[in-house]
Amino acid sequence: MNPIAFGLIAGLLFGAVDVALMIPMAFPDKKTAMLAAFASRFAIGFLIGVTRMPIPGWVRGALVGLLISIPDAIVTKAYAPILASGIIGGAIIGAVSTRFIQS
């Protein structure tokens, strides 16, 4: 699969899953919070798809997930859930990317 196509699909899926997990939560501005979460998770999925590094796919995914999640964690002060979902989701996408992306 083309890296850009994989990144778009992975980003859309990861963003949708993260937003779905936020539905039962309460936020002062829920629409903005969900849009920001989707954008962040979309960026993780997309960047994992198009980034190449000389490390295993799951490590690349976890690293991208961590780096993209840090600003959101700092702003919200919800470090554990945001960093954990970014790292775990990124690692999963990174591992899957090695099977689907043709070099």
Instruction: Give the rounded overall mean pLDDT.
Output: 95
What pattern of helices and strands is seen along the backbone? Answer: HHHH
Shape: globular
Helix content: over 70%
SS-based class = mainly alpha
Number of strands: 0
What share of the residues does DSSP label as strand, in percent?
Answer: under 5%
Largest sheet: none
- The rounded Rg comes to 13 Å
Uncertain runs: none
Count of the domains? 1
N-to-C terminal Cα separation, in Å?
9 Å
Count, helices: 4
What would you say this structure looks like, in words?
The structure is a single chain. With 103 residues, the chain is mostly helical. The chain is built from 4 helices and no strands. The chain has one domain. It is 81% helix and 0% strand.
Can you give me a brief rundown of this structure?
This protein has 103 residues and is mostly helical. It has four helices and no strands. The chain is 81% helix and 0% strand.
Distinctive features:
mainly alpha; 81% helix; 103 residues; single chain; globular
Please give the structural blueprint.
Elements: H1 3-22, H2 30-50, H3 57-76, H4 79-100
